[in-house]
């Protein structure tokens, strides 16, 4: 009797899913076989259309989701003297779509609309391609979004939206370079990154070299103080650093490669050496020296200050993590703390004196130091020299651009964005 009760209770548990107790016994077995035969063809029957009990539920079955085409957005620019403002603009643009296509304006178009570029097309392409948010690059893009080029973007590159910042982009005749995109309803706007521009950087370079011709200590201090005044528009925040950061630690057993430097006026040479360093391991840790360390080595302040240089390095697709204000000397504690497997340094360097203490003495003694060939011979000083050598041309260009930037800051309003 007890066995019968247990068996019944077990059967109750098995059939609580919507069937009924009258199905038990021989009659229940026959009904079950009939349902299987009609509804599923289990015994060679006709299948689901002949099982009316299940018809109301057929519409509730999940449908196969159609694969949607990724949203492709386009943003263009000169990207001359690439800085964290450019990087942040492209970061924001990427948030408006799935794939970011970037047009790099040709040298000829820059000359016609703004003045002579500082960097070559090749250098600007390297910088843009090296950003972590960029998926595709179009070289020699026009400065103006003409109807012909806009149609090319839509048809050839499958662009859904054209992106630009909230600051005006005017042609020599005063008209809006993005008027056609706005009219077509395919235009989206992002927020301009405050505190930096290529025009501003040219001004800093001219100021720095003007006050350092004598190389006296007073001139250096005066130059640094004036540059700090010029940097007053830059407002570094922890949120911005988080937005640029990968936010990931190296996995257990990962080969961590360390490289350090000033990374001032972030240029194509920096991108290439970081690419080379990243290929030597699984995780690239970059040390960015603080302003004081650079001043002691060069005899003058960096053009870009620590937080600006940090953001430029973080934006590079080959960089995994940054030490902000890293010490000049690589210590045992640093190697242990970050589990560094290899310390590397390029063949192109600037600002080091002959009699200084070797900052890589410890990793050399540990057998974890390696010199890697710098793919490009560019330095921050060589980039700045291009501007100094064409002082009058860039000074004229800056006066024109500075007027429009001053107007922007005077009339600017809050623009919602990230």
Automatic annotation (TrEMBL):
So what EC number does this one have?
2.7.7.14
Which biological processes are named by the entry's GO terms?
Answer: phosphatidylethanolamine biosynthetic process
Alphabetized CDD domains for the sequence:
CCT, ECT
SUPFAM superfamilies, per this entry? Nucleotidylyl transferase
* Residue intervals of the Cytidyltransferase-like domain: 74-203, 258-347
Membrane-crossing ranges are 20-38
GO MF term list? ethanolamine-phosphate cytidylyltransferase activity
Family recorded in the similarity comment: Belongs to the cytidylyltransferase family.
Provide the protein name: ethanolamine-phosphate cytidylyltransferase
Which organism is this protein's natural source? Brachypodium distachyon
